[in-house]
């Protein structure tokens, strides 16, 4: 029987089994269906990702975490693609997310804003855990993932094998828990029960990235996330003792231009 490593000329080399497992994690994905459109958009100022999803049959679309300053960009793209924006939806409400929902409603009449009921934010549509957001024949399952804020949601598109985690889970990291409804215990439980419970090959798309990465997978984060691979007590200690170079932010104390690099 092969061990997980093979010794060759005084050094350790991965066995064929280990190499095969590693390649499977890196390459196994769920292909998008032919009638599903997906675009990932980026705001350099706030390091925020915005996601455009659409059903190509009905042309109905949703936009996740739109940024106010780029609402015109998003509206133009949606119009160019011949889509109808059904919902401008947010993963959560926070001062670093100056949402473009209101502006998009002006630019694209018929669009409705959507956010978690637990967020306490104003919107046309409020959703809760396990509810579905439908656009054309496609749907997103709302999973309540509090911890960064009480109203954080992760939107899961099971057919396409993807989830949009907001600030709850970042690539190799997670959102801060030291201000405005933050709770490291709640965040840990949210990730492990609502996100890490998804199949390993599911792609994860966060609301921010500060390292030049565009996506990750459940399997990668379960293996490589430096915070969330720790036991609960150790994770809580890490989150309670982060040596952040910025003061704690409370409610709307974030500067208008938002500092790119904050680990929200």
TrEMBL record:
<dbReference type="GO" id="GO:0006749">
    <property type="term" value="P:glutathione metabolic process"/>
</dbReference>
<keyword id="KW-0479">Metal-binding</keyword>
<dbReference type="InterPro" id="IPR051682">
    <property type="entry name" value="Mito_Persulfide_Diox"/>
</dbReference>
<dbReference type="InterPro" id="IPR044528">
    <property type="entry name" value="POD-like_MBL-fold"/>
</dbReference>
<keyword id="KW-0223">Dioxygenase</keyword>
<dbReference type="GO" id="GO:0050313">
    <property type="term" value="F:sulfur dioxygenase activity"/>
</dbReference>
<comment type="similarity">
    <text>Belongs to the metallo-beta-lactamase superfamily. Glyoxalase II family.</text>
</comment>
<keyword id="KW-0496">Mitochondrion</keyword>
<comment type="subunit">
    <text>Homodimer. Monomer. Interacts with TST. May interact with RELA.</text>
</comment>
<keyword id="KW-0560">Oxidoreductase</keyword>
<dbReference type="GO" id="GO:0031123">
    <property type="term" value="P:RNA 3'-end processing"/>
</dbReference>
<dbReference type="GO" id="GO:0046872">
    <property type="term" value="F:metal ion binding"/>
</dbReference>
<dbReference type="InterPro" id="IPR036866">
    <property type="entry name" value="RibonucZ/Hydroxyglut_hydro"/>
</dbReference>
<keyword id="KW-0408">Iron</keyword>
<dbReference type="GO" id="GO:0005739">
    <property type="term" value="C:mitochondrion"/>
</dbReference>
<dbReference type="Pfam" id="PF00753">
    <property type="entry name" value="Lactamase_B"/>
</dbReference>
<keyword id="KW-0007">Acetylation</keyword>
<feature type="domain" description="Metallo-beta-lactamase">
    <location>
        <begin position="47"/>
        <end position="208"/>
    </location>
</feature>
<dbReference type="GO" id="GO:0070813">
    <property type="term" value="P:hydrogen sulfide metabolic process"/>
</dbReference>
<protein>
    <recommendedName>
        <fullName>Persulfide dioxygenase ETHE1, mitochondrial</fullName>
        <ecNumber>1.13.11.18</ecNumber>
    </recommendedName>
</protein>
<dbReference type="InterPro" id="IPR001279">
    <property type="entry name" value="Metallo-B-lactamas"/>
</dbReference>
<keyword id="KW-0809">Transit peptide</keyword>
């Amino acid at each position: 029987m092969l061990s997980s490593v093979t010794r060759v000329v005084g050094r350790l080399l991965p066995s064929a089994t280990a190499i095969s497992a590693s390649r499977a994690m890196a390459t196994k994905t769920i292909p998008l269906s032919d009638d599903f459109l997906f675009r990932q958009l980026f705001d350099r100022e706030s390091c925020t990702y915005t996601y455009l999803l659409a059903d190509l049959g009905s042309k109905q679309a949703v936009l996740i975490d739109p940024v106010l300053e780029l609402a015109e960009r998003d509206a133009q793209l949606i119009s160019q693609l011949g889509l109808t924006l059904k919902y401008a939806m947010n993963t959560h409400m926070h001062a670093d997310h100056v949402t473009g929902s209101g502006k998009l409603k002006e630019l694209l009449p018929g669009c409705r804003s959507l956010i978690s009921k637990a967020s306490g934010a104003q919107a046309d549509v409020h959703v809760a855990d396990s509810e579905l957001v439908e656009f054309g024949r496609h749907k997103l399952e709302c999973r309540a993932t509090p911890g960064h804020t009480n109203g954080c949601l992760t939107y899961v598109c099971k057919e396409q094998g993807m989830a949009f985690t907001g600030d709850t889970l970042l690539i190799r990291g997670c959102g801060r828990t030291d201000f405005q409804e933050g709770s490291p215990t709640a965040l840990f439980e949210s990730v492990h029960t609502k996100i890490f419970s998804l199949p390993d090959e599911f792609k994860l798309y966060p609301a921010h990235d500060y390292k030049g990465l565009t996506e990750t997978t459940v399997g990668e984060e379960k293996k490589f996330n430096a915070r969330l691979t720790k036991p609960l007590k150790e994770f809580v200690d890490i989150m309670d003792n982060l040596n952040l170079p910025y003061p704690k932010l409370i409610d709307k104390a974030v500067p208008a231009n938002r500092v790119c690099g904050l680990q929200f």
